[in-house]
Amino acid sequence: MVAQMAKTTADARAEAALVDEIRVAVPEHSLWHNVRAVNIVWRRELIRFRTDRLRAITSLIQPFLFLFVLGTGLSTLAKAGMPPGVDFKTFIYPGVLAMSVLFTAVFSAGSIVWDREFGFLREMLVAPVSRASLVIGKCLGGTTIATFQGLVFLVLAGFAHVPYDPVLFVTLIGELLLLSFTLTAFGLMMAARIKQFQSFMALTQMLVMPLFFLSGALYPLNGLPTWLGVLTRIDPLTYIVGPMRHAVFDHLTLPAASIQRLAPGITWGGWVVPVGVSLGLVAAMGLVMGIVAIGEFKKTE
Amino acid sequence: MAMRAGTSSGKAGMAAPVGELPSAMGPGDGQAVISVRGLTKRYGDLEAVRGIDFEVSRGETFGFLGPNGAGKTTTIKILCTLATATTGSARVAGHDTSTAQGEVRRNIGLVFQDTTLDNYLTAEQNLRFHAALYGVPKEAVAPRMRQVLDMVGLFERRNGLVSTFSGGMQRRLEIARGLLHAPRVLFLDEPTVGLDPQTRSSIWNYINDLKKREDITIFLTTHYMDEAENCDRIAIIDHGRIVAIDTPEALKASVGKDRVQIHTADDPAAIAFLNDRFGIEAAVHEGAVTFSVASGEEFVPRLFSEVPVAIGSVSVSRPSLDDVFMSYTGSTIRDAEASGIDVMRQRAAHWRGGRR
To answer: Which of the listed CATH numbers 3.30.70, 3.40.50, 3.60.21, 3.30.1300 matches domain B257-317?
Structure first.
């Protein structure tokens, strides 16, 4: 009898728990909820990256080719122009390092186009969270993945005679994070307007290659013909490749003249742009593009 | 009798029984959870929605019945803040869908017509994503997830990648996800297309159960007649207009009478009795005495208590919603579907062209 009663109470409690579980609830409008949304969108990007090993490997092939094939191949030719004791590979290493995050960052933003095509974006857009938190989550995701790619490439620094110096590495990682963030924001801004994945790939590819070639990743910025000099100063990537090269050459034991020749810094008509200003410019561009992307996602059909 | 669109407000409380609900939040309090006024939506030249008005009361299950391309999904998109109306207004849970989108989104859940799962995640990862985005309290996530996965029979497969699921399994997962956060207003866009009958009934059991316990309002679109039967009220929509709104029973009654067939020991005597006592013309069809009455369910007990001849068996068949649709739109839903698909194609082509 007692046992039976106990059982009934247990049943009632289980029933009450069940009711509780399916209680209709209107989520509160809170910062915490938005932070949770940012976190889950970010984590989804990481999960997808982890399960897609092929993507991780293929996106490292291109910088590999540039550093080891192009770098080695051209080094005999470049020897004439290089100061003694400096390998051409060392010279292009910072630029190729930037390249290793370039495609990953921009294309990771393309996942939003993919989400749109496969309907998943709607699941996010109807959610009771601000569109800003979705864009921020995506941006963090792209930044993390791209920086991770850069880290893999950073491990190979020794092959380009770049010293494994902790200060240098911290500097480079910080710069990679900044670069990845700005590129992802750029990708998101593009992705907000483009409805088809193929178009996104084609368009970004079309934009990314000129950005890379004009950034001074493969040649020094001094002594260029005026037209090319102007174009390199317009290219946003220039302002991150410059500081990265500056960081690397700061940690090499070279005569000042050699450094001046290979890593002259970015000049605006004679004025040498300080590293801080240069990085600040990149950060500001990333922020502006991110805000534009958020604005785009706030619009409705 | 069925009412014409636009004159429907206030009728909601008389909809089918949802008596188990506490009266304070019952469907009878006349509070409109969804109210739509003169809503239109144009995509370029195409008028997808041509001025509709309706209200859905709290606790009601309201269905949009119509062929593909009739404007059902467009209406849902506007109500869910995924699209903005060209003219007219829509309010959901007391908030305007164009000016208070955030508030509207906080109150709704949506199961989309086409799949919106992430194929590269597992079932559980998809649900966790949803739980975080839709603000399910952390401690409730695990039990709620178990509950909805059990409902659709996917608990064992929770760690499987969605890309390995069959179409039916994906659909089930999608519905489970839509119910995960128990929203105040749940939109179901063609919820059970392509599902087997067992799953369909298990999903409807869950929804009906949820409705009994909770203050939840359901708005669904369908072109399945048997699914529409689950609704308290139905709006029949065709070519962007609502042609009728009422309870399924009233809609069917407005079309025609029930058909009653009885097997008796003495058919001629039964026919004579029906004519004398009730003034009903009966005849023998398919070996049974057959006649039509307005409400077969109510008529049969009266008949039984009075008829002098022995009755062996009885069957009452009601006019189906197919008949209803036919009588309001002049075509069967299948015929309408065929032309509707053309409209959809045009719209899709137009949409793509217009967006780029």
So the answer is: 3.30.70
Tell me which H or E stretch contains A272. strand A271-272
A122 touches chain B (CB under 8 A): yes
* B186 Cβ contact partners less than 8 Å away, ≥ 6 residues apart: B108, B109, B110, B111, B178, B179, B207, B216, B217, B218, B219
Are the Cβ atoms of B182 and A28 closer than 8 angstroms?
A: no
Strands B108-111 and B185-189: parallel
Rounded Cα distance between A56 and A58, Å, is: 6
**Bridge partner list, B113:** none
CATH fold label, B12-252: Rossmann fold (3.40.50)
pTM for the full model?
0.76
Quick: pLDDT tens for A163-174.
Answer: 999 999 999 999
* Least reliable range by pLDDT among A30-34, A236-240, A275-279, B251-255: B251-255
Do the beta carbons of residue B180 and residue B131 sit within 8 Å? yes
Q: Which residue of B has its CA nearest to A40?
A: B129
Helical residues (DSSP H) of chain A, grouped into ranges: 2-21, 31-51, 53-64, 71-78, 88-109, 111-117, 120-125, 131-154, 166-193, 197-213, 226-234, 238-250, 256-262, 275-298
- Chain segment A33-70, per-residue pLDDT in tens: 899 999 999 999 999 888 888 877 888 888 999 999 99
Using a CB-CB cut-off of 8 Å, the residues of chain A touching B215 are 24
- Chain A hits for B134, CB-CB cut-off 8 Å, are 27, 127-128
pLDDT-derived band at B227, boundaries 50, 70, 90: confident
**What is the rounded CA–CA span in Å between residue A175 and residue A243?**
8
* C-alpha R_g of chain B: 23
Q: Which one, of A52, A55, A39, lies nearest residue A141 by Cα?
A: A39
Q: Which domain holds residue A265?
A: 32-298
CB distance B150 to B183 below 8 Å: no
Portion 208-267 of A in contact with B at CB < 8 A: none
Q: Which of A26, A44, A118 sits opposite B106 (nearest CB)?
A: A26
pLDDT band (50, 70, 90) for residue B118: very high
Domain for residue A261, yes or no?
Answer: yes
Residues of B in contact with A120 (CB under 8 A): 116-118
pLDDT of residue B301: 85
- For residue A119, give the nearest of B101, B116, B121 by CB distance: B116
